[in-house]
């Protein structure tokens, strides 16, 4: 079974995708990490994130980079949103994601274009939402817990800028697939959001069995 989980920054899609992977005993890929690794490589090599060829060169990163805590910083998240807009960066990362999705037994992937581009054939597609203010509060709390002194206003501005860039780029913009189930987590606890996500996956897969 392939489960696609998409949505904007701090909507809770990673939390939900990890929980679904655990529930269904499937491997999970956080595809945002791949774009973050490219961004960190661009920064490390002092390349220009605005130049597509520079970013493509940075796609050839060492696997160990995926475990580097620098990838989790907000600065790299912002830079990832810039480098991910280049079509050739997206194609450089495409096959790896498709291979992961289509491994025997299936997988759970979360990102921005899983249901639309990486696995349009997914058995269940979820698009996770929450209001920008609520997402900013969640991300702010997370950053503060890691020692950051960034203001809530700054985090909200960054979230809005990232939403705009991710949803308006020419290639694989962030948008719900036509057949995605929408899940707004704004007023749901983490546990309630996970239970709702499982119920949506069950409903989708049951409907597929009924109408093959
Ligand atoms: N329903 C919820 N209620 C409250 N907090 C939540 C909820 N879902 C997730 N969170 C918290 O919000 C933060 C962001 O969640 P998460 O990392 O799952 O989002 P994301 O959409 O994967 O973000 P990103 O795209 O930036 O990786 C985390 O600190 C997480 O614990
Ligand atoms: N499938 C994806 C996943 C991510 N991106 C871009 O990477 C940025 C960072 O993603 P996080 O999920 O780790 O926050 C994100 O803002 C996107 O620009 C993508 O394009 N496609």
UniProtKB/TrEMBL annotation:
Residue intervals of the Cytidylate kinase domain: 3-202
InterPro entries named among the record's database cross-references: Cytidylate_kin (IPR003136), Cytidylate_kinase_dom (IPR011994), P-loop_NTPase (IPR027417)
Any one GO MF annotation of this record: kinase activity
Gene3D superfamilies given in the database record: P-loop containing nucleotide triphosphate hydrolases
Binding site for ATP: 7-15
Enzyme Commission number(s) of this protein: 2.7.4.25
Catalyzed reaction equations: CMP + ATP = CDP + ADP; dCMP + ATP = dCDP + ADP
Subcellular compartments: Cytoplasm
Superkingdom: Bacteria
Keywords: ATP-binding, Cytoplasm, Kinase, Nucleotide-binding, Transferase
Similarity remark: Belongs to the cytidylate kinase family. Type 1 subfamily.
Name the UniProt record assigns to this protein: Cytidylate kinase
Organism: Sphingomonas oligophenolica
Gene that encodes the chain: cmk
């Amino acid at each position: 079974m392939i489960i696609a989980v998409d949505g904007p920054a701090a909507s809770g899609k990673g939390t939900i995708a990890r929980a679904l992977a655990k529930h269904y005993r499937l491997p999970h890929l956080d595809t945002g990490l791949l774009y973050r690794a490219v961004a960190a490589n661009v920064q490390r090599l002092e390349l220009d994130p605005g130049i597509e060829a520079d970013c493509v060169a940075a796609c050839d990163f060492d696997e160990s980079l995926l475990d580097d805590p620098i990838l989790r910083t907000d600065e790299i998240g912002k830079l990832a949103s810039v480098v991910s807009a280049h079509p050739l960066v997206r194609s450089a990362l495409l096959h790896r994601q498709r291979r992961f999705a289509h491994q025997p037994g299936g997988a759970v992937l979360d990102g921005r274009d899983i249901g639309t581009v990486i696995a349009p054939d997914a058995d269940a597609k979820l698009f996770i939402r929450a209001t920008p203010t609520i997402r900013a509060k969640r991300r702010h709390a997370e950053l503060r817990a890691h020692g950051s002194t960034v203001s809530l206003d700054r985090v909200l501005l960054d979230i809005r800028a990232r939403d705009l860039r991710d949803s308006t780029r020419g290639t694989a913009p962030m948008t719900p697939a036509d057949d995605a189930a929408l899940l707004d987590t704004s007023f749901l606890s983490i546990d309630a959001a996970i239970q709702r996500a499982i119920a949506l996956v069950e409903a989708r897969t049951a409907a597929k069995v009924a109408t093959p």
